[in-house]
Amino acid sequence: MSFAVAPGVAQPASRTQGARAQSTQNTRSGASSLAAPAVAAAMGACAARRAQRAQKPRTATRVVQEFEDVCEQTGVTLSRYCIELANRGIIDSDLDSIFNSIREAAKVISKLVNTAPLKQAELLGLEGEVNVQGEDQKKLDVITNDVFKNALRYTGKLGTLASEEEDEPVDASWMGTGETEAIPVLSEEFADTGKYICVFDPLDGSSNVDAGIPVGTIFGVFEEPDPAECELPADLSKGLSEEQQKCLAGTLQPGKSLVAAGYVLYSASTELVLTFGKGVVGFTLDTSIGEFVMTRPSIKIPSRGKIYSANTGNIAEWDEPMRQYIEDIRAGKGESGKPYSLRYIGSMVGDIHRTLLYGGIFAYPADTKNQDGKLRLLYEGAPMSFIMEQAGGKAITGHSRVLDIPPAAWI
Ligand code: FDP
Questions:
Q1: Strand 291-296 vs strand 280-286: parallel, antiparallel, or unpaired?
Q2: CA–centroid distance, residue 208 to ligand 1 (Å)
Q3: Rounded alpha-carbon distances, angstroms, from residue 300 to 24, 239, 354, 357, 395
Q4: CATH number of the domain encompassing residue 323
Q5: Number of domains, the chain
Q6: What segments bear the compositional bias annotation Polar residues (predicted)?
Q7: How many C-beta atoms surround the C-beta of residue 3 within 10 A?
Q8: Is the pLDDT score of 329 beyond 90?
Q9: Domain at 129, CATH number
């Protein structure tokens, strides 16, 4: 798919809207010790405020404000955040379990990426296989795929997992081994309880990983339309009947049906950014306590930026309108009247993270080699577009909204 994200890509916006600095407020605060009468008064006030808030729509910022009523946080960890959302009925306990697993997998992958240069023979270089996307798989692609897949599978809360690195989606309650018999990995009581579908790219930007350049994990969670209807064989690699294929195709949904999405950036720090469709929240891995701690309670993309991010090595192959647009903003002929400059890592999670925080445009336009653009709708485009829109940005193909496009296949 061809893909661009930014606020106002189609109509460059007003020059009065300068780039707003992203709040990096650290929400950690010491525990408070209030005297009993003050606690009673505070509780009364809290109750009144809660009643008022009950009338207003829930957003990520509002949920965090509500935590303040508790008055004794020592920092909002990702697990605490999910528990609070579950308590407030914003997510269910299954989604909470899924995010527990994503959190643990992200910590393991962060460790693997960070230590890879010290374990080159084990972790760096090519695996020797080509994935379903036709790309050479790196050892770390395969290892991180297993880490993510296994962490999710053991939740027992997922009907289907689909990874960019796998040929076909995996029935989450079974381990299809391809050449040998499928092995059940969950006991009957935990198997097939899942109503969610998780799509993920365990190590996006992995062509950079041997050089220690930032890479990331991208994930999205859908609710299965009707899990009971898909009777799939234990080992999907042995092929599906026409009926089963139809059934699986029915589980392919456009990005606007996502119930959650996020990414993890493995860089100078490990950043986890997520949305449950009520705004965007960011966490940073505090390695001293092994927890993701909330560092960006409400991420909003600045309404105007000054950076564009695209592989301009392909500019001669782009459509004329795309080429012209980039040339215009580069020359300061956009609405802001200021020239945009180029920043391109070539690692989508890093490029999107910067765009989200600083504003501007990220794009992977179609070219003669990649006629729909290089990025995959299901594993990259849809989750990132959900995050971008939730942060107040836009995600478009040039013709339509990315979140409206139904994927044609699991790849
Ligand atoms: P990679 O191939 O290293 O996994 O979609 C994959 C991706 O990286 C993105 O992370 C990145 O934005 C893009 O490809 C880079 O492609 P180019 O090298 O063609 O610019």
A1: antiparallel
A2: 9
A3: 11, 44, 12, 8, 14
A4: 3.40.190.80
A5: 2
A6: 13-29
A7: 26
A8: yes
A9: 3.30.540.10
Query: Residue 21: what pLDDT?
Result: 27
Enclosing domain of residue 344: 2-7+301-404
Residue 57 lies in a domain: no
Q: Dump pLDDT digits (tens) for 331-374.
A: 999 888 999 999 999 999 999 999 999 999 999 999 888 888 89
Residues contacting 118, CB < 8 A, separation 6+: none
215 CA closest ligand 1 atom index: 10
Q: Is the dihedral of CA 82, 86, 90, 92 positive or negative?
A: positive
Domain stops at, among 217, 240, 263:
263
Is the residue at 369 inside a domain?
A: yes
* Whether the CB of 350 sits within 6 Å of ligand 1: no
Please indicate, yes or no, if residue 158 is contained in any of the structural domains: yes
Atom number in ligand 1 closest to CA 345: 12
Q: Assign 65 a pLDDT band (cuts: 50, 70, 90).
A: low
Residue 284 phi/psi, 5° resolution? -120, 140
In a domain, 241, yes or no: yes
pLDDT tens string 183-214: 334 344 444 557 888 899 999 998 888 889 99
- Does ligand 1 have an atom closer than 6 angstroms to the CB of 309? no
Name which of 177, 196, 216, 179 is nearest 92 in CA terms. 196
The answer to whether the CB of 374 is under 6 A from ligand 1 is yes
pLDDT band at 308 (very low <50, low <70, confident <90, very high): very high
CA of 370 relative to ligand 1 center, distance in Å: 12
